[in-house]
Amino acid sequence: ARDHDSMALPSITSSREAVTSSKHEKMGASNSQYSMPDQPARFAKAKADQNQRFLDITSVYDPSYLSGLRVGLTGANRGIGLSLAKELTAQGAKVVAIVRKSSPELDALKPEEVITGIEATSDEACKGLAGKVKGGKLDVLINNAGYFYEPVEMIGDSSLNFSEELKMIDICALGPLRVTSNLFQNGLLVEGCKVAMITSQGGSISWRTTQNPNGGDYGHHMSKAAANMMGVLVAQEFRQHKIPVTILHPGFNKTDMTKKYEKIWEIEGAVDASVGSKRVLHEVGKIDMERTGKFFNCEDGLEIPW
Q1: Which of 76, 82, 134, 212 has CA 20 to 30 A from 28's CA?
Q2: pLDDT digits (tens, 9 = 90+) for 89-132
Q3: How far apart (Å, rounded) are the C-alpha atoms in residues 110 and 116?
Q4: What is the pTM of this model?
Q5: CA distance 98 to 277
């Protein structure tokens, strides 16, 4: 499967969005709890406020916690997953790459373990995952793998693709559930470890009126909303085991998958995947039982409403 997407459909500035953003601020954004739904406005505000957390993640990012940790990472062979693997390796983490197949770029990093043959849609393949892990329990699991069907689906032009919609839901929501459950059931996720579910702001239902004022892109957004629900339910079940689970939107990253939006990269604050990986790992470092079950935007560190 392709690495997950790191954005919703491009935002379209309109008076309707402005009204929605204003309502959103009244519901909590003004007290800095929630991120802004309007992507161009969010980026513009960060620049106007000289928000270093947003504009320069290195001003707050301390990767020292990663040294020596065993980090399971799905989708590590390309895109933001590969960038995460590079950053983890650079910081001394022991990467346990969990992929369908490896890549020359991943192999060049010489991960602690590269576990291949893990197809996110296969019950059997995921059931065999724990048996392939040779180095013992994980300190961190980052569920990053996903899939994005690129055409924009609309009812009006008969472009809906139901099989692709089911594929997205299977990979993006059931995939990380298959992986997480197998690792937990086999004693590789225990008290004290952390789980990060990389989903997307595209899974926020309340943000659809701003980011999708004309609807569309059904499978993508349904799959991310399902992934968010999965993440919250896992967080609830794992509370008793003292395993925190946080849902993360990685931000708008410049990857092959988002290249079709290249013309708005600069307007909407897209960053190189190397920067995006630092944003994600900054938030991973903050995962604890106080933050379990919550949904955070790695761009600004604020919550995203469901």
Answers
A1: 212
A2: 999 999 999 999 999 999 999 999 999 999 999 999 999 999 99
A3: 14
A4: 0.90
A5: 17
